[in-house]
Automatic annotation (TrEMBL):
Keyword Secreted set for record: no
GO cellular component: plasma membrane
Family: Belongs to the glycosyl hydrolase 17 family.
GO biological process, one term: carbohydrate metabolic process
Reaction(s) catalysed (UniProt annotation): Hydrolysis of (1->3)-beta-D-glucosidic linkages in (1->3)-beta-D-glucans
Protein name: glucan endo-1,3-beta-D-glucosidase
Organism, as annotated: Sorghum bicolor
Catalytic EC class: hydrolase
GO terms assigned for molecular function: glucan endo-1,3-beta-D-glucosidase activity
Gene3D superfamilies referenced in this protein's UniProt entry, alphabetically: Glycosidases (3.20.20.80)
Enzyme Commission code: 3.2.1.39
Length: 410
């Protein structure tokens, strides 16, 4: 479990509304409309006449370890309403990739079958079957090979990780996709031996033999270094010593790095800069760190301190405000933080503690998990015939999403 002083975390990711139109209009007329909400309303396609809003500068993880999720066509409509333009999958689900064709949404797809991917022929066959046919209709921009492999205990998987990444990249090149698709892998932040102060960030010594050549690979092919970081775990492990405002991006005195005199007012940015410091210690200042997962659970077991709706809304809402500002970290102020929030839906079949099943921004029926003032009816998750061109569901759902976004930006 994480120590409070170095912010290490342990993650368990594998992956990872239509009331009558008149009712929605009346509700909106009755609600006081702050300026951010008015600006969002003007950007959404209500009555098929508005100008599209600029995409929000964050991605979202679309996990599917559940038996009650809506059809991908419904999810496509939801994300277009949210103006989210980047999605990360843990596989390459053809139903999802087909549903998003022509939307412009960028996808990261994944494959965790490391041992087969080390075979060049099998790697090429997988890319040819699961990636190439969907391009360019669906924008697939990255393939992740494995997930948090180096934080596990499977040494055979660790040894296979880089060869699998190389084989997949070679397949991408051979199929003429190198200009569109890059190759990476996602790591847990607990591959760091320490992360506090951020300038002392260093990778675990026993992982150096794996990480150094992976960093060299990223530099050679120009792909980002992906990190899954959850300040929730540090707070859960030591709520008496870890400041809740510090992990929730709320006002606090901050923490000064004595080696750089840089001040950090939140843990996530400190973790990102610790990764930069760890890479620098291995001779790499030429790579970009991206957060492939971060989030906060809205519910947990009795011993999961901090797993509440209020904290989840604060963490994700405050983070999205920062992302919308194009803010960088103290060490890299000119490099906007790049984040994929975990996750789109609560996933009822995930193993582990209760928190693992409660990271979603939405329930599977399409209603938002956080109470932001809109009590809309749920859409049917079982209907595969939903289309974003179906005017009534699209319009009313957009209204719900406006209120969700307003909560994030207010």
């Amino acid at each position: 479990m994480a120590r409070a002083d170095d912010h290490r975390t342990v993650t368990m990711r594998s992956s990872p509304l239509p009331p009558p139109r008149c009712v929605v209009v009346v509700l909106l007329l009755l609600l006081p409309l702050p300026l951010p909400l008015l600006s969002l309303l003007s950007a959404i396609n209500v009555a098929s006449a508005a100008t599209a809003a600029a995409p929000l500068k964050f991605g979202i993880n679309y996990g599917q370890i559940a038996n009650n999720l809506p059809h991908p066509a419904q999810v496509s409509g939801l994300l277009q309403s949210l103006n989210v333009n980047r999605v990360k999958l843990y596989d390459a689900d053809p139903a999802v990739l087909t549903a998003f064709a022509g939307t412009g949404v960028e996808f990261i797809v994944g494959n965790e079958d490391l041992f087969n991917l080390t075979d060049a022929r099998k790697a090429r066959a997988w890319v040819a079957q699961h990636v190439q046919p969907f391009l360019p209709g669906t924008r697939i921009t990255c393939i992740t090979v494995g997930n948090e492999v180096l934080s596990g205990k499977d040494t055979a998987a660790m040894q296979s990780l880089l060869p699998a990444m190389q084989a997949v990249y070679q397949a991408v090149v051979a199929l003429g996709l190198a200009g569109q698709v890059n190759v990476s892998t996602a790591h847990s932040v607990n591959i760091l031996a320490s992360s506090y102060p951020p300038s002392s960030g260093a990778f675990r010594e026993e992982l150096a033999e794996y990480i150094q050549p992976i960093l060299n690979f990223h530099a050679e092919v120009g792909s980002p270094f992906l990190i899954n970081a959850y300040p929730f775990f540090a707070y859960k492990a030591s709520p008496g010593t870890v400041s809740l405002p510090y992990v929730l991006f709320e006002p606090n005195a901050g923490v000064v790095d004595p080696n750089t005199n840089l001040t950090y007012d939140n843990m996530l940015y400190a973790q990102i800069d610790a990764v930069y410091a760890a890479m620098k210690a291995m001779g790499h200042t030429d790579l970009t760190v991206r957060i492939s997962e971060t989030g906060w659970p809205s519910k947990g077991d009795d011993d999961e301190v901090g797993a509440t709706v209020a904290n989840a809304a604060a963490y994700n809402g405050n983070l999205m405000k920062r992302i919308a500002m194009g803010q960088g970290t103290p060490l890299k102020p000119r490099v906007p933080v790049d984040v994929f929030v975990f996750a789109l839906f609560n996933e009822d079949m995930k193993p582990g503690p209760t928190s693992e099943r409660n990271y979603g921004l939405f329930y599977p029926n399409g209603t938002q998990v956080y109470n932001l003032g809109f009590d809309g009816a749920a859409f049917s998750p079982s209907s595969p015939t939903y289309s974003s061109s179906s005017k009534l569901p699209a319009i009313t759902f957009q209204m719900a999403v406006v209120v969700l976004l307003a909560g994030f930006f207010l």
